[in-house]
Amino acid sequence: MINYIWFGMIFLGVLIGLLTGNGEVISKAIISSADSTVSLILGLVGLMCFWCGVMKVAEKSGFTNKLAKILRPILKLIFKEAAKDEKALGAIVMNITANMMGLGNAATPFGIKAMQEMDRLNKEKGTASDDMSLFLVLNAACIQLVPSTVISIRAACGSSNPGSIILPAVLASTIAAIMGVICCKVLQRYF
């Protein structure tokens, strides 16, 4: 559906531009945006490789395992059924740990695995359980210790201090995660 919306917006914009006699402006904008897009992507590739390397070092050094050990008791408190199953809890911990380190791409397979494991535990197939809903909220509003993607984008766009986003990101994502858990727990009592 979103593809149709984007296509419609682009098509109407180009059509109106051509009908108003701004075809040259449109072609110049397309060429300049294509050039800046390629430059941005090349900058992002290098920075994402750097951050993926940093995260690999964190993983090999045992930092992510230590973070997972810290998270495990907290997650056992907030998840009801998934906390009793080691496979489900392990996938949840790995997903949240990867998200906390700002590696959404690495977190996706763990998130899928966590949902599959929680669905295995679910008594009502085809309906999201409370744990599944809570996991989705935590996954969307996960605490960001290292917002590597945002730092990479800011650096690629020429920011003078791309790391200045770290403290605001930690604060905002922590508040969002706490409020998400509170809302889920309150709504679980009524629905």
From TrEMBL:
Keyword Transmembrane among record annotations: yes
Keywords for the protein's UniProt record, in alphabetical order: Membrane, Transmembrane, Transmembrane helix
Keyword 4Fe-4S part of the UniProt annotation: no
Signal peptide (residue range): none
Pfam family, one: Gate
Transmembrane regions: 6-26, 38-58, 88-112, 133-153, 165-187
Domain Nucleoside transporter/FeoB GTPase Gate, first and last residues per copy: 42-154
Protein name, as recorded: Spore maturation protein A
Species assigned in the record: Clostridium sartagoforme AAU1
